[in-house]
Amino acid sequence: MNNKVVSSLREAIELSGLKSGMTVSFHHHLRNGDFVLNMVMAEIAQMGIRDLTVNASSLFDIHAPLLQHIENHVVTKIQTDYMSGVIGKAVSRGILETPVEFRTHGGRPSDIELGRTPIDVAFIAAPASDGMGNCSGKYGKSACGSLGYAYPDAMNAKKVVVITDNLVDYPLLDWSIPETCVDYVVTVDAIGDPHGIVSGTTKITRDPVGLVMADRAAQVIRHSGLLKDGFSFQTGAGGASLAAAKFLKDIMLKENIHGSFGSGGITGYMVDMLNEGCFQSLMDVQCFDLKAVESIRTNPRHQEISASHYASPSARSAVVDSLDVVILGATEVDTDFNVNVHTDSNGYIMGGSGGHSDTAAGAKLSMIIAPLFRARLPIVTDRVNCISTPGRDIDVLVTQAGIAVNPKDTELRQRLIDAGLPIVDIHELKELAERTTGAPAHIAKGDRVVANVIYRDGTLLDTIRSVPTK
Amino acid sequence: MDIIKKASAGTLESSDVYVEIEPGQGIQLELESVVEQQFGDSIRALVQEVLAEYGVENARLHIADRGALDCVIRARVETAVARGKGE
Amino acid sequence: MRRSMLFIPGNTPNLLINGAYLGADALIFDLEDAVSPDEKDSARNLVRNTMKYMDLRRCEVIVRINSIDTDYWKKDLDAIMPQKPALIMLPKSGCAQDILTADAYMTEVEERLGWEKNTVRLMPLIETALGVENAFAIASASSRVAAIFLGAEDLTADLRCKRTKGGNEIAYARSRMVVAARAANVDVYDTPFTDVNDDEGIRVDAEYAKSLGFTGKASISPRHVGVINEVFSPSQKDIDYAYEVMEAIRLAHEQGRGAIALHGKMIDAPIVARAQQTIAMAEEMGVGKVVDHE
Known about the structure:
CATH architecture of the largest domain in chain C: Alpha-Beta Barrel
Strand order of the largest sheet of chain C: 1-2-3-4-5-6-7-8
Order of helices and strands of chain C: EHEHEHEHEHHEHHEHEHHEEH
Distance between the termini of chain B: 11 Å
Radius of gyration of chain C: 20 Å
Strand order of the largest sheet of chain B: 1-2-4-3
CATH topology of chain B: Ribosomal Protein S5, domain 2
Shape of chain C: globular
CATH superfamily of the largest domain in chain C: Phosphoenolpyruvate-binding domains
Radius of gyration of chain B: 12 Å
Structural class of chain C: alpha/beta
Structural class of chain B: alpha+beta
CATH architecture of chain B: 2-Layer Sandwich
Largest sheet of chain B: 4 strands, mixed
CATH class of chain B: Alpha Beta
Largest sheet of chain C: 8 strands, parallel, barrel
Oligomer: heterotrimer
Number of helices of chain C: 12
Shape of chain B: globular
C-alpha cells in the first residue's frame, strides 16, 4: 500500500461501507469553525443513505444544516455531550422523534469503549495528516491544538476516515492519532474557519460583579486547605472563571505555591500559570485559544490527553480523579445544589454537560460561580429544570451576595467561616434574589421527552421535555 | 396632560429596558421581553400603573425589555412620559 | 463607618442594582460626570428609584449631584433628597459661598418635606486650586458639612500638571485638605486611584492617604474596594488596645480615681475618643475582642 489517500470524500464513504441505519461520529475540536460535519453529512445525504445516528462530541450553531438532514430523515438520532442554541432550540421544539442522548465528556468515551454506543464510521477532521493517517491538531492553517475527543472514535470505530486540509510527507512528526487505526485519508480545501476554531484571545470579565465573584472564588480556594504544593486545578473559559484563575495565579505566585497540574479545556490563562511555575504540567483535552495551541505545540510540559484519559469513569483512572479544585458555571442551581447547564430559562436546550459532571465527581472541591440573578432571573431555584450534575457532587456556590456551602461539607464550611468569608445558606440566596427580582412565573413544559441526560456511569439522570410552541 | 410628542428612554443593555412612547388613542402597549414567560404580565401591569400615576390616558408604547428590575422599568417609563409631555 | 466609597455611574442599571454587592461601605451614585447632559433626567429617575425600591443592604448612599453653576442641581436635590441619602456630594466646591448656596436650597427642601434642618448632610468635592486654598472655609461654612472630599483629576487639570501614580503633584493638596478638615472637625476622603489594574499601586496609595490622616478613600473600581477597606480598618492590635483603654477607664471609675494610666501612659480624652471610635468600627466590621491579654 502506497498510502491511504482516496480521491474524494464520496469514495471514502463508499469504501467505508456506510449504510442506512448505521452510526457516524465526529469530534468538536474545530468548534464553531468546523466544516467537516456539514460536508460529510451533505455527501451522505446525496448518496441516499438514511436513518443514521450522529454521535458528535459536541454540536455548534455552524452545524445548523444538520436540521435539514433530520427533517429529511437522513439523521434520526443524535448522541452528543453539548449542543448550542440553534440546534438546541429545534430539538426542544421536537424535530427528532427519538430523544437526544446527552452524555458527558467522560461518559461518551466510556460508552464507546464498552461497546454501548458502537460507531460504524468515524470522520476525523485533522489539521495535519500524512498519507497513512498519522494525524495531529497542532499544525496547519486549521490548527486546533489537542485532538483529545477524537481518540475514542479513532480507536473504536469500525472504519476511520481522516479528513485534512494539510497533507504532509510521511511520517508526520509528533502525531497524536496513529495510522494503526486509520482506514482512509481524504484531502479537502479547508476543514474549518480558523476564526471559529479558536478565539484570538480569551479575556477575563470586566463586569464588576464577575470580578467580585472571581475574587471570592479565589479566596475560597485559598482557604480550602487544598492550595498547597501539588495542587491541581481546572476552570472553564467563562469570563468570571478566567478571572478567578488569574486571581488564583496571583495568590500562588505570592505564596510561592508549586502546583501539580492544570487540566481540561485550556486557555492562555492556564498557559500563563504553567509558564510562571504554578503547575508542573497541563493535561489538555481541548485548546480554547491561540496561546493554548502555540503552547501545546512547543512546550513538552503541555500534554495532550484523550477524552478517556481526561474523564472516563470506566478507565482504570482518569485525570479528573486527581483534581483538587474545579470551577464550573451554571444556568441554574437548586437548593439541593443540583446544577443545570443543559437548558435556558425558557426550557430550550442550549448547552450540555461537557466535562461538568465528570470534573464535579472527581474534584475534591467543585465550585460553581454564578451571579445571584441574570437578566432578572434568579439563579437559585427550588428545583432546576434539568439536572446536569447532581448536587451531591457540588461543594460550593459562589455568588456576589455570599457563598453557599453544601451542608455535607461541614469541615470546609467551618474553614471558610474562620477565614472571614461571607457564608450564607443557599435558601437565603434564593430568597434574596427573589426579593430583588420578584418571583418568576413557572415556564410551560411540553409533554414529549426530547432528550435524555445520561450520567457518566450510564444511568439516566434526568429527561428534558419539549417546549410548547404557541 | 397627555403625550404630545414621540420620546424614548433607556437602552437595550442587559438589565435595562428601552421605552418608546408617542401620542395615541387609549393605551396601546407592545412589550417584547427576554423574561416574557416569567414576568411579562407583571411588567405590563407595572407600566399601566405608572401611566395611571402620571395621568397618561392616551399613548402608544413600545417596550423592549432586557431583564430590567421593576424599579428600572418604572424609572424608564417615568422618563419617557416626562419627555413625551415635553417637560 | 466609611472606609471605602465606590463611584457608580447614575445611568447604568446593571451597576446600580449590583452596587450593594461590591463590598464598599458607601456608594456614590453619580449624576455628574458619568452622565451625559441629555440623560440627566433619566439618570435622576433611575437613581431615585434605585434608592427608593432596592434593598441596598448595609451600604450608605451618597449622591453626587451636578454643580451649582448648572441647571440640574436643584432638580437633582428635589428628586434625591426625599430618599434620604447619607450625604450629598457637591462637585466644584470653590468657596464658602458655594456651600451656603447649596445649604440654603437643601434647607428649603427639608422644610418642604417637614424634616429637621441638616437631616441630609453635605460633602463638598474640592477639585480646583481655589477650592484647595479655601478648604477650611468650605469645611466650616455650614454645620451641614460632614466631610470634604479631594478630587485629584480635575484639580491636576486646574493646576496644569500631570496626574501621576506617585501623586507628588497633589501632595500639598492632600495635606492641606486633611488639616482643613480636622480643624473644622469634619471627615476627609481621598481621591480614587485610577489605574484599575494596578493591585499593588492601590495599596501603596491607600496606605499613604491613611498615613496623612484621611478618614477613607473613594474608588472607581470594585477591585480596589477590598484593599481600601483593609487599609482603613483598625488593626487587631488597635482594637485590643481600645478595649484595654475602655477597661482601664471602667476600673478607674469603680475605684473613684481621676487620673488614669495604662502601660505607664496617661489616658486623656482624645485617646478615649479614639478608642471608642475604634471599637465602634470593630463592632461594625464584626471583629470583636479576640484575646484577653492577661
